[in-house]
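For this section, I looked closely at the sequence of one protein beside the tokens encoding its backbone, which the following lines show:
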Amino acid sequence: MRNLLFLLIGTFFGIVMFKSEAASWFRIYEMFQFKSFHMYGIIGSALMSGIVLVQVIKYKRLKHIGGSRIEFIPKEKGFYRYMLGGILFGLGWALAGACPGPMFTLLGAGFLPIIVVIAGAVAGTWAYGMLKNKLPH
């Protein structure tokens, strides 16, 4: 039953991504050329919503669906590693025309070439899983 809930939430998320044109390669292209505010507005509103919701979770000491308390663990400082990760993420986003969120939305909308990007994301995730103990964290 819980998996059905997750499927419904994911489907709703995909519909919102598609209808808001957040999964549109043309909108992403406009964003990277600084020609349109559309994507910056979507990302900015998501960021602001996230900030507010995290503060509510901390203040109310909310629990997740499994019943245990949600905890936020501070990250280590390390400007360069986050900068490198951000650059790699941005390059992948620019080359693929999609960040991880809309990849499945695009597949569901019938854009079959995104299968190559999904396969690359899965392979990269698998490679990281195999190498994570050997990488500096």
Q: What stands out?
A: The helical segments are 2-19, 25-32, 38-60, 79-96, 100-108, 114-131. The chain has a mean pLDDT of 88. The two ends are 37 Å apart (CA to CA).
